Amino acid sequence: MTSPRNCTPGRHRAGTLAALAALAALAALAASACSSGSSGSPSAGAPSGSAVAGLGAQHPATGTPVTLGYIYDGTSEALDQTDDLEAAQATVKYVNTYRNGLGGHPMSLDVCSTDATPTGGRDCVAQMVRDKVPLVLNTESAEGNVMWQQLINAGVPIWLELGGTEAVDASNIADMVQNPLMTGIGGPALAAGAAGVTTAAIAVIGVPAATAGFSTGVPLLYGAFHIKTVIVSIPPGTPDPSPQVVAALTHHPGQFMVLGDESLCDAVLKALQNAGYHGQIVALAGCISAGAAKELTNLNGVLEFTTETSDPASPELKVFNAVMDAYAPQSIDRLMAKNDYQMIVALSLATHGLDGAATKGNIQHAINTMPPKRMPLAPQITFQCHHQLSEYVPAACSVDVLKTVLDSDGTIASSTVVKNSILQVSGT
Hints:
With 428 residues, the protein is an alpha/beta fold. The protein folds into two domains: 35-40 and 62-179 and 312-397, Response regulator (Rossmann fold, 3-Layer(aba) Sandwich), CATH 3.40.50.2300; 181-306 and 405-418, Response regulator (Rossmann fold). It has helices spanning 9-34, 82-98, 118-130, 144-153, 166-169, 180-194, 208-211, 214-223, 242-249, 262-274, 290-295, 315-327, 334-350, 360-368, and strands spanning 66-72, 107-113, 136-138, 158-160, 174-176, 199-205, 228-234, 255-259, 280-283, 303-306, 373-375, 378-383, 401-406, 412-418. The strands form four sheets. The protein has a five-stranded parallel sheet, sandwiched between helices. The longest helix has 26 residues, at 9-34.
């Protein structure tokens, strides 16, 4: 592996955090575009108090109930996060019955939709403050830049799955389960460095929410391995991105990465196939459609970086599926549901040591003093929320990532943990 040069985190933080916010917005856009868009009819669900096969022994929360804020972007022309809400509600039922809730307290959700507008985001902040919730949950939101600083200013702690901003990383009352820099840029940069790549091309869907920050964050992380980058912005709805892909290939990239929804991933991979590209290919996890997997011939060896396993043999995935079978609508999009499940189960784990009432201060103290725990849906990875793991992303509770190698049919050939390096605090 090419040795990364020494970087000064403080000097580059603004650019890195801008890239982080862009990746979070991209994740929301890609996940919603990959969704079926239909939440279907609710399943009957498990009877109250009854055991569900595959979920183990019950450990019900019996303390004083606590209501947490839950903000999501709802449904708009650009996205549909209905499945996110339904997954969150299903997971809360599971956690309350099987995992002792939030430090022994049964949880419920105070739900607010931003409708993917700044006004809606501000309204949700006002609702959370008015309702005096002790913590706000969110998987990813296009309105994070509007909401997080306002919530922090109001003293309302935030528990995020993704969605980092400068305000989040500067605050000691905001935590983020995943580290999107590792799944979006850091992991691929490490893979490129290990392969001796000197130039990498990155195709990204050409919308401001996705591309903002890439011009600084991407060169920074790839630059740690002396790798030049070519950003390929492809407008939404482009039927054939071959011209952009072929133009990028004139730079002779040793790695070609695609970050976008299913339509973009499928089209870029097809264009690379038609161009006879034989370098390293990286795709945003879950963005290759089942239909494309049957037709493409260049999936063997494609890399994905994620903190959520897709291995059907994984015991963690089997529990997740049992929870969705029992408590969620039958047609829920499980790719989207994974984020809410991971976020809420991780919160239950992080607050295991909660002492006393479920107040803002007690909850935050439990989170910030938690011991290392295994990541839900990725037990090979540990998470710990003490703001000391990463100089670049202080709010992140993890810095490791799963590197998945695909087989020729798009299924998983192998999955290994990539340990942190460029995102880790010196000496940890």
